[in-house]
C-alpha cells in the first residue's frame, strides 16, 4: 500500500504493511531544495507519529544551522576517494586521454590527505586547508587550482557513479586568482649559467638541453625515446599529453652533439633520459632541478611569486621567448610550441624585434 499522509503532523507519512504493521517516514527539503524521504521505523519497534514528527523537526533545525542531518548515514555508505579515483582513471583510459599529470597530482597532493577517507567526510574546510598547505609549500597558484579541480572532478565521478550521494564540497571552495600578465624567461647569460651549473649531472644537463631546444613540457621530454630522434634531419617526434597529439621539434647544435654520443648506446625503445626501457618519473627531474633553479634564480623571492620565480616550465617559455626575440614568425612559434590556440602564442609577440616599438618612437617627430 502507498504512503498515506498523516492528518495530524506535517510532512509525516504512514505505510500500512502486509503483515498489519505500520512503517513511519517523513519528507523534507535539503539545502539545495531537493525533496528527501527518510524512513524512521515501524510501529512494532515503538515508533509513533509524534516521534516521527519530532525527528523531522530535528532534521529541519540542523539544516537551518547549516548542518547535514544525513551526514553520518552518508559517511557509513560512502566509498573512499581512492575508489572514485580508480573509476576516473578507467574512464580516462577508455577515452585515450593523457593521464601523466592527473596521476602525479593525485598521488603527490590529493591521496595523502583524502585518498583513504570516505568521500562524504570531505568538507570545504578540509579542501581549503589543503589549498593553503600547497601554497605554503611553494606551489604556483595555477598548480594549486589544478589540484583542487582534479579533486572536484573525481568527486563528480563518485556522484555520477553513485558511490556518494550529496553535493560536491569542492564547488564551495573559491579558486585562486592567477595573474598571467608576465612570464619569466631566462636571458642568454642565464641560460649559459644554468647549463654550466648542471653540466656535471648528465641527466639534468641533457634534460635542460632538450627543454631549451624543443620547448617541450616536462612529461613530453620524459617520454622521448631513441626511435623518436632523427639526427640526419635534426628532428624529434614529441608527444603532447596536454593536447593528446604529436608534433615535430628540432635539435640545436649543442643537443645534436650530446645525442650523437648517446644514441649509439641505446636500443630503439629506450628512453633518452633514463637510458633504458623505463622512463624516469617526474620527481626524478623535479626534485634536483628545482633545488638548482632556486639556488641560481629564486633567492629572496616568495614561494608563490609566479611572475618572477624560475621553475622547470620556465625553460619552455625561454624557448618561445627567444624565438620571438630572434624574429621568428608568430605562427612558426605556435607550431613549435604545439599551441592549439594562437592566443596562447601571442603573449610572446611583444618580444619580437618588429613589434612596432622602434617605428612608433620615430612617428611624426623623427
TrEMBL record:
Listed Pfam families: Int_N, Phage_integrase
Keywords: DNA recombination, DNA-binding
GO molecular function: DNA binding
Residue ranges annotated for the Tyr recombinase domain, each copy included: 181-361
One annotated GO biological process: DNA integration
Entries under InterPro entries matching the protein: DNA_brk_join_enz (IPR011010), Int_N (IPR057084), Integrase-like_cat_sf (IPR013762), Integrase_catalytic (IPR002104), Integrase_recombinase_N (IPR010998), Tyrosine_recombinase_XerCD (IPR050090)
Taxonomic superkingdom: Bacteria
PROSITE patterns: TYR_RECOMBINASE (PS51898)
Residues annotated as transmembrane: none
Similarity-based family: Belongs to the 'phage' integrase family.
Record protein name field: Site-specific recombinase XerD
